[in-house]
From TrEMBL:
Protein name: Siderophore-interacting protein
Organism whose genome encodes this protein: Filimonas effusa
SUPFAM superfamilies with a match to the protein in the record: Riboflavin synthase domain-like
Molecular functions per Gene Ontology: oxidoreductase activity
Domain of life: Bacteria
Phylogenetic classification of the source organism: Bacteria, Pseudomonadati, Bacteroidota, Chitinophagia, Chitinophagales
Annotated Pfam families: FAD_binding_6
Positions of the FAD-binding FR-type domain: 18-116
């Protein structure tokens, strides 16, 4: 629901107030000029933050945007977001203006289960908009001794982000050479990766390209594919 009438949003917030907590911004800082880290604190009791779940935020009277939690600690009431600022759209304007002390109402977390602890090998594919999800996965992958690889399709101005966010085992390639470089990645060439768990997110076209290549190479592992954005379309 990227857009809804103001009266409808007001009614939903009134009726669902107990399930849409208002949190306080305790930190708002830039990781680099195009990514902002937002730390929110408050009462998260009763909310189910599964790995990879997203919350929605009303960024204007009529606009809503989804944000994946990069970190969630329900017990201690801590939620962190990593937001890539890619345009002057309503969501970006809202995030840019946030400062410590501001109040933000969040919608209930929801999503589809993406992580399977029983599968040793994990492959993550995404772009700048996928980095929050990558960070949420990273701690689980390390803690549970997975063999994992991150593959990021990034602009030159974003190539420093995986390192700044503390990620490991990542390869960066350019958006221009995606179709040429993807078939040479290890999980297309090595049989031990055919049973991996594949998480594909980010640009819709890139996700579709990667998924087609995986199926063409007869991978046996589960493929989770979710486009976060598409050129010319608002608020996927």
């Amino acid at each position: 629901m990227p857009r809804a009438a103001k009266w409808f949003g007001d009614v939903v917030e009134s009726l669902m107030a107990s399930k849409m907590p208002v949190l306080t911004v305790t930190e708002a800082c830039y990781v680099n000029p195009r990514m902002k880290r937002i730390r929110l604190e408050g009462d998260l009791n009763g909310l189910d933050f599964q790995l990879g779940y997203a919350i929605f935020i009303r960024v204007s009277d009529t606009e809503y945007r989804n944000y994946t939690a990069s970190f969630a600690d329900v017990k201690n009431g801590i939620l962190e977001l990593l937001v890539f600022l890619h345009s002057d759209a309503p969501g970006c304007r809202f995030i840019k203006k946030l400062h410590a002390g501001d109040k933000v109402r969040i919608g209930m977390p929801r999503g589809i289960k993406q992580y399977n602890a029983a599968i040793q090998r994990q492959v993550f594919f995404g772009d700048e908009t996928s980095l929050a999800l990558a960070c949420s996965f990273y701690s689980f992958l390390k803690k549970n001794d997975h063999i994992f690889r991150f593959y990021f399709e990034l602009d030159a101005s974003s190539e420093d982000l995986p390192r700044l966010l503390g990620l490991e085992n990542f390869i960066i390639f350019s958006k221009e050479n995606l179709k040429r470089e993807l078939p040479a990645l290890p999980f297309f060439l090595q049989p031990e990766w055919l049973d991996a768990n594949f998480i594909l997110t980010g640009n819709v076209q890139s996700v579709q390209t990667c998924k087609k290549l995986l199926k063409k190479n007869n991978v046996r592992g589960r493929i989770f594919a979710q486009g976060y954005w598409m050129e010319g379309k608002t608020g996927l």
